[in-house]
Fold this protein.
Amino acid sequence: MIDFTSNVRPESMERITNFDLANAFIEEAVAAVRAQVGDKKVLLALSGGVDSSVVAALLIKAIGRQLTCVHVNHGLMRKGESEQVIEVFGKEMDCNLVYVDATDRFLDLLAGVSDPESKRKIIGAEFINVFADEARKLEGVEFLAQGTIYPDILESVKQAEGKKAVKSHHNVGGLPEDLKFALVEPIKLLFKDEVRVVGEALGLPHAMVYRQPFPGPGLGVRCLGAITRDRLHALREADAILREEFAMNGLAEKVWQYFIAVPDIKSVGVKDESRYEGWPAIIRAVNTKDAMTATIEEIPYPVLHKITARITAEVEGINRVLFDLTPKPTGTIEWE
Ligand code: XMP
């Protein structure tokens, strides 16, 4: 029996590597959630990432419509991502899904802000504001579900021991005083690979469960410097092309994280025989075990040429494509 209240994973807990083990875990987790929650209501911030999606699917199985999922679109999602959340949780599953398009709220606050930490703080704080606004509209909610996983617990132990964080990571937490919820954290003893197996056993789409990690502040930390809507649009389109080409060339499951960053600089180029000033798109493709250090994946040149040709032809505003060769350290994985 797993102790779902403990923050320490017992040595005896078997690694979940197949559907049989996943189904056994799901059965225990469902019983534990039902015992904890009873007939009360639960709220979940559903980003569409692996962890929150698996918690959502697990809770839907355990308590059905006692769960309300709130998906906040901060306008910094990748192409098609909010749509996938609506498709899976709003249409395919029997789920109370509240979708909030807060794009303008976020982009208006971020206008003119170029300092990376200030951007992170604005996005994190506004996320809590939007989520809290939605939570206050719902009546009788007593629990907040979270997609905390075991590495998050290990990380917070490290921080409590006084190790300095390089960046202020943002995840939900720190809700205002008037919103006091008890936490439901059914996957907090699982490692990421286990969360994925459990997700597939719960019937979530493979693409959602094997989605590469995506930072809380989203494309906000990849649209470098002060975010503008046109550059953010270019970044989103270029990133979608990169993901498409990686998938088509068998790289999507070989490379741990890959994305585009677009800096706030323009260079002179030429298009249709005329001067064409545009931003560069920077490709980042890294492999890592724990995100503390990272190495650069070697991408075949023909793939890089194809991506370059497509991005410069299809994306308005981009006239060059660069490949970032910097491991971590000295670069961090994200540029901001
Ligand atoms: P860095 O850039 O610090 O990133 O090397 C390490 C990993 O963490 C992701 N990342 C975040 N994840 N909230 C998250 O949940 C955040 O605020 C955040 N910032 C960075 C990053 O994408 C990489 O996988």
User: Anything to note?
Assistant: Residues 116-137 form the longest helix (22 residues). The two ends are 42 Å apart (CA to CA). The chain is about 40% helix and 15% strand.
